[in-house]
Every structure is written in structure tokens, then in C-alpha cells.
């Protein structure tokens, strides 16, 4: 974080006097910045520090007589990096929007296959900037640039970024309601399977051949019905590598005809014990 301070500025932590509590993350940052001993002193005594002392212990990184002018200078220094962020961020957002548009139909179809009794599934892109699904690269650049200008002062005060593609998310909704608010564990599993099936279909359409699947403990929390759906899809792929902590979690229809290898802890770390079974 970049903080500039006037020499006559005053810094203090008032919990000792006011009975306030600080979040653990903030306390960890304080200790990491000024050290444990100084952090204890500041918290227990509410000692007041001037700008020079704050600079000495690392709370600020530069002292300035003209703070406003220094802030403007810093903004000018950062501007070229902001332009790079906008260009790279717009490319990322454009790719994400295109991906969500391409996966929407196969995702809805796969979800209907996995959970025919559940409401329809949809996915949308959420950001502070509110990009339209069909936004062009130029429109994305304009919106992201405006958002960065609007939040520049707040970002300087808070010490972290408030906008950008790293703050965006994909929102899954079932029956028009966001899954984060209403989804049961069963519905969450249905969506994960539907997303996996939709990705397989997209890769087949793009590459002309099915992918090699890597599944990490994919069966342990699935009910029999969802397991059967996944087994059928796996049967259509040329090769699937599955990890599990318990072999019994895998359906017999899957282990029959499969090569099963046990990984154990050896003297030099993890190692393959060898083929356990070939059905």
C-alpha cells in the first residue's frame, strides 16, 4: 500500500481508551508493518504518533509538506499502470462474457438432464461496472476506465482496489433466484455436475475430440442418481483419471474395467504401491 503523510499528521489507535475492538486481519497487518512490540504499545496505550514517527516505523512510506500535491504526483505516476490494467482487464472481461454466452445453452441442457425436477439454471456476469452481455471491447474499456476514476480516491484511502475483473463474479441462478442465497447441497452438486458436462460438450465441439478428465474425489458427496449420471458421461470419454480416499466411494460400474492404483506414503514421500486391481 502507498501512504503519504504530512509531517504534522497525528496517528493513534484508541481501543485502550474507548473500548473498541479491531478485526483480527487488521491486527495482523499492524503487527506485520510495525512489529509486535510497537503494535502492543500502540494498542495498549493509544499513544499518539506524529508523521515522522509513523514514517520511521513504516505506517506511511513517504512524508510530504504538500500532501495534496504529492497525491496528485502519485496519481500521475500510477496512470500508465492504470492504462495497462484497463487494456488487460477489458480483454479478460470480454473473454469471460463470451465464455458465459457460449456455455449458457449447454449448461441449461446439462442441468435439465442431471436434475429434471429442479427449476432451470442460468448464469450471468456480475460486476460493479454492469457490463452488458454483448458489450464490445471499446464499451468495456470505457466503463472500466470510468470506474477506476470514480474510485481512485477511495482506493487510495482504503489501500486496495475496489473495481476490476478480479472483483467480478459469475452468478448462478435456479428458477431466477441466486443459488448463493437459496441452493441446497443437492442443488449445488447438480450445478457442479451440469457445469462439468457443459464444459465437456464445449471442448468436444471446439477440439473435435473428448478431453481427458481429471476428477478429484468427485463421487464422495453424490447421491446414487447423480453418480449414475456422472458414470454415464465418463463412459463416453476415452480416459478419466479419478482420485479418491476411499475406493468404496466409486460405483462398481466404474471400477470394473478400470486400472486402480494405490498411492501411499513412502520413505521419500508419496509413491504408487502398484496396480491394486484391473477389472
Task: Summarize the helices and strands and which ones pair or pack.
Elements: E1 4-5, E2 10-11, H1 15-18, H2 24-34, H3 36-45, E3 49-50, H4 51-57, E4 62-63, H5 67-114, E5 121-126, H6 137-158, E6 169-174, E7 177-178, H7 179-182, H8 185-207, E8 213-216, H9 224-235, E9 240-243, H10 252-255, E10 259-266, E11 269-278
Parallel strand pairs: 1-4, 8-9
Antiparallel strand pairs: 2-3, 5-6, 6-7, 10-11
Task: Give the tags.
279 residues, alpha/beta, three-stranded antiparallel sheet, two-stranded parallel ribbon, 11 strands, 52% helix
Largest sheet, in brief, is: 3 strands, antiparallel
Shape type: extended
Please estimate the helix content: 40-55%
Radius of gyration: 27 Å
| End-to-end C-alpha gap | 58 Å
Structural class call reads: alpha/beta
Q: What is the N-to-C order of secondary-structure elements (H for helix, E for strand)?
A: EEHHHEHEHEHEEHHEHEHEE
Number of strands: 11
What spatial order of strands do you see in the largest sheet? Answer: 5-6-7
Strand content: 15-25%
Description:
This protein has 279 residues and is an alpha/beta fold. 52% of the residues lie in helices and 17% in strands. The chain contains ten helices and eleven strands. It has helices spanning 15-18, 24-34, 36-45, 51-57, 67-114, 137-158, 179-182, 185-207, 224-235, 252-255, and strands at 4-5, 10-11, 49-50, 62-63, 121-126, 169-174, 177-178, 213-216, 240-243, 259-266, 269-278. It has a three-stranded antiparallel sheet with strand order 5-6-7. A two-stranded parallel sheet has the order 1-4. The longest helix has 48 residues, at 67-114. The chain is extended, with a radius of gyration of 27 Å. It starts with a strand and ends with a strand.
